[in-house]
From TrEMBL:
Keyword Hydrolase part of the UniProt annotation: yes
Keyword tags: Hydrolase
Region forming the signal peptide: none
Record SUPFAM superfamilies: Isochorismatase-like hydrolases
Alphabetical list of Pfam families matching this protein: Isochorismatase
Designated name of the protein: Isochorismatase
Keyword Hydrolase recorded: yes
The Isochorismatase-like domain, residue ranges: 8-178
A single MF term (Gene Ontology): hydrolase activity
Family annotation (InterPro entries): Isochorismatase-like_dom (IPR000868), Isochorismatase-like_hydrls (IPR050272), Isochorismatase-like_sf (IPR036380)
């Protein structure tokens, strides 16, 4: 056990992300790794936060009431797990997440979900800046192909790797699922 509570924060694992499959992505096993971590956290009775993106654009699959806004069933929150809704990439902005963590004495967070270079990176930067000991799970996050600023096509692996490089040792520590389970002495789900 750790001396301080550790919260697992699952970012944007919604049905609409499955619809993003038209764009090439990396880490095809990310959902399985997230599920392993979720089961391990549940088994340890540790705090879990599910973040859901709710779009401000009516034509978005993440608009309230659209099927895309729903959580993926295999990663859906249990009744006792906290849900945070956000309208921007960063899960801390106007969501009450920081206060929820502080009220419970949680100073360490483990981030998983999608996409690495957007909501995961934005949330990790803020978590680190707010003083949370932040860990990003490299194989439980994923990114999509994207053109860089100069128009050069970058693969999902390149986008993912650069995003993790932006975070590691600056805002967060980056580890894989197996090492996270080992560090916290958890059993895989």
């Amino acid at each position: 056990m750790t001396e301080q509570p550790v919260s697992l924060i699952i970012i944007d694992m919604q049905q609409g992300m499955k619809g993003s499959a038209a764009r090439p992505r990396n880490n095809p096993d990310a959902e399985n790794n997230i599920q392993q971590l979720l089961m391990a956290w549940r088994g340890a009775d540790w705090p879990i936060v599910h973040v859901r993106h709710i779009s401000r654009s009516p034509d978005s699959p993440f608009w309230p009431g659209q099927p895309g806004a729903a959580f993926q069933p295999e990663l859906a929150p249990a009744d006792n797990e906290h849900i945070v809704e956000k309208n921007v990439p960063d899960a801390f902005i106007l969501s009450g997440l920081e206060r929820w963590l502080h009220v419970r004495g949680i100073g360490r967070v483990v981030l998983v979900g999608v996409s690495t270079n957007n909501s995961v990176e934005a949330t990790a930067r803020t978590a680190g800046n707010l003083g949370f000991a932040t860990l990003v799970v490299s194989d439980a996050t994923f990114a999509f192909d994207k053109n860089d600023y100069t128009g050069v096509p970058r693969s999902a692996d390149e986008v993912h790797a650069m995003s993790l490089a932006n975070l590691d040792k600056e805002y967060a520590t980056v580890m894989c699922t197996k090492d996270v389970l080992k560090q916290f002495k958890l059993q895989a789900g």
